[in-house]
Design a protein that fits this description.
The chain contains 5 helices and 6 strands. The protein is an alpha/beta fold. The longest helix is centred in the last third of the chain and has 23 residues.
Amino acid sequence: MLVSIVYDSHYGHTAKQANAVAKGVRRVPGVECKLFAVADGPISWEEFEQSDAIIFGSPTYNGNLTARLKQFFEDSTQPVWRGMKWRNKIAAGFTYSGALNGDKMGTLISMALFAAQNGMIWVGLDLFPGNSAKVGVANELNRLGSWLGAMGQSNSSEGENPADVESDMNTAAYLGERVAKLAKQFQAGLQI
């Protein structure tokens, strides 16, 4: 079983988040994980055809995903979409920004719409918002309160290399593990 993670990262935070997702995927026995950074150049579409699940990641800029990930989506039209080659693959997404909200939901919605247009099955988080249960508890999973995918944030006021919030990376790992488990269930015919 193979889970692929395709992502863009300009300052390294989303790359760290992608690695956290991969860490979660690798917690599930019998599941292999491959990471693909769109900035590294052309990606073989055939590699994705072998995937049981594809997880998308992008920083949120101006309320949406980056131009490079959007270009990847657009480039998939001929080799993937026309033949519905990703139909019934599990899909999920994650995003990162410097702002606490930063309109990250717009990025996740764009990813989910892309997945839907390719006949994919979107997996979100099954976690209650961690920061809403108790006053001042920001170190719990899903502290940013997203159901659609994993979100991450660090304070841009801390300079060029602000610290990533550990709970956001743990939430990303949780998403990766969830996707891998559901992909195995789906493959085994245990889906509802």
